[in-house]
Amino acid sequence: MSKIIQLPPQIIAKIAAGEVIERPSFAVKELLENAIDAKATEISIHIEQAGLKKIQVIDNGVGMDKDDLLESIKPHTTSKLSVNDDLIGIKSLGFRGEALASLASVSHVLIKSRTKTASSGNQLEVKNGKVISVSLVGTPIGTNITAINLFNSVPARKKFLKSTQTEFRHIVEVVTNYALFYPKIHFVLTHNKKTVLDLPKESGANARIEKLLGQEIMQYSLPIKTQEQYIKFWGFVAKPQINSKSQNKQFIFVNNRRVSDKLISTAVKEAFSTMLEPTSYPVFILFLEIPFEMVDVNVHPRKEQVAFINSKFIFETIKQAVTQLLSSNNITFQSFLPKKTGADTTTSYAGKLLKETVLEKESLIPTPASPIVQLHRVYIVTQTKDGVLFIDQHAAHERVLFEKLVKEFKQQSQKTTSFALPKPIPLVMPISELEIIRENSDFFNKLGFVFQDKSNKIAITHVPTLFKDRNPKELLQTMVDTLQEDLPLQAIDTVSLEMLSFLACRAAIKLGDELTLDQMEKLIFELEKSPNNATCPHGRPTKIVFPLKNISRFFKRAL
Questions:
Q1: What is the DSSP letter of 405?
Q2: How many beta carbons lie within 10 A of that of residue 11, not counting itself?
């Protein structure tokens, strides 16, 4: 008996659907691409329960007649590629002919469509890959596709999905990606009948980018436009002050297609050279035009990656252009050594707390025989019995504050530790980042942040009391950048410790803060009583001892 069998069509369809539609946002992406390829100028996306209950995409594109409607849900049928066309040189967003067939195999699909020349439209109903009915229907010109109960026929797929908030955030990111490149299309996105995005047609990309990504990114971005042989690209590159801990703020479009491309990302990163920390990533939006025959868009099931024929030339062209942009604007690395006085530190709430918790006259080393000095407003230097001690003032204070935060967090987890701001501070962030805050609202509340969420806008009303005089937007942005990496969720206590370390980092004495002798003495004392005081919460050393015998060797002196 043969061990090799041919799979039934239903199984084949579900396997194909698994490659193309792994989560609701992928279905939205495929339907959006179809609507854009149909030359739509109005696209509405209506989502219920993050797409699991309903995904509806309505467009005013060219529409389909009855015959095309019936063909559209069959595997590998497409209007965008003929049998004589080469896969190299694809100009449309969709071309594989898998989207509707895959969607129809894992959900209940209703499609209404009408062409410009028809007096009425047609409705096709498909359930789990089987045609239920075809009928005439009154409908506007264009196509209306509704997918109901996604993955009901493959419940195992649901086990791999994240929370409702996370899945919807991915949908927001998909819509954002296409809305960025197509400002002349009016996009509307709703979730559970609540409008999340309403983006009227814009004459140019700038206004759309500002609406979706926030004013700050546009304010600190430099426009770039370059043409080199067959490559043409334009967009915006943010100054080094605006950076991210992840690559989620890098938007790359190749021939109208949003892609994730390591080659281009690395080229821009290398152009920044030492202007950014190794763990930080530049923020940019680049639109590239390259001859279609020199780009292979068929290297990924969902067309999210591309391959270039001359990748080395493209890499060097982009790197050189961004390098020239940064140098011509006289941009150098922005030092994070703010000119502050000692008073700035002691008048902060964290500084007062530090002062109050230290015994006024008790200290470890401040004696006439052991002077304490501040070196370049970065290090505290003093002598030990057998050498010289260097203390990183920021790392040391960060460890001290972190241990205080952990203790306070554990002791006061049942009560509020928030400070009410004089007035709410609005958050100007990309919508996908606001969704992260909503998704993790319980966690932020536990830390002491309280938000006001009205009309799809979020404002901060309360902050952790320990940091009431620090910049709350800066603290939040760091935490959002970390959460945006979408790593597997850890236990709340583990995540809390990670977030508390960021809070301590932002509130600690900075490199460049001028400290008094009294402050340095107190910091040394507090560091010595803190657990794990050899490093800051991120693993960087807080103090280094240079043994006297090693120093003597430099002077060729024997001890």
A1: H
A2: 11
Task: Tell me, letter by letter, the H, E, C secondary structure of 79-145.
Answer: CCCCCCCCCCCCCCCCCCCCHHHHHHHCCEEEEEEECCCCCCEEEEEEECCEEEEEEEECCCCEEEE
- DSSP assignment string, 44-59: EEEEEGGGTSEEEEEE
The one-letter amino acid code at 232 reads K
User: What CATH number does the domain containing 263 carry?
Assistant: 3.30.230.10
Q: What's 248's DSSP letter? A: T
Dist. CA 84–CA 82, nearest whole Å = 5
Q: What is the pLDDT of residues 230-240, one digit of tens each?
A: 899 999 999 87
- 558 domain residue, yes or no: no
Residues 138 and 93 in one domain: yes
| pLDDT single digits (tens) 404-435 | 877 776 665 555 568 899 999 999 888 888 88
pTM listed for this prediction: 0.67
Q: Flag whether 351 is in a domain.
A: yes
Distance CA 179, CA 210 (A): 12
Q: 368 and 294, same structural domain?
A: no
Total number of domains constituting the chain: 3
Task: Give 555: exposed, middle or buried? Use CB within 10 Å, 0-12, 13-18, 19+.
Answer: exposed
The closest alpha carbon to 228, from 142, 317, 150, 307, belongs to 317
Residue 118 amino acid letter: A
Segments forming the whole domain that contains residue 299: 214-328
| CA dist., res. 460 & res. 470, Å (int) | 13
Q: Look at 301 and 521; give whichever has higher pLDDT.
A: 521
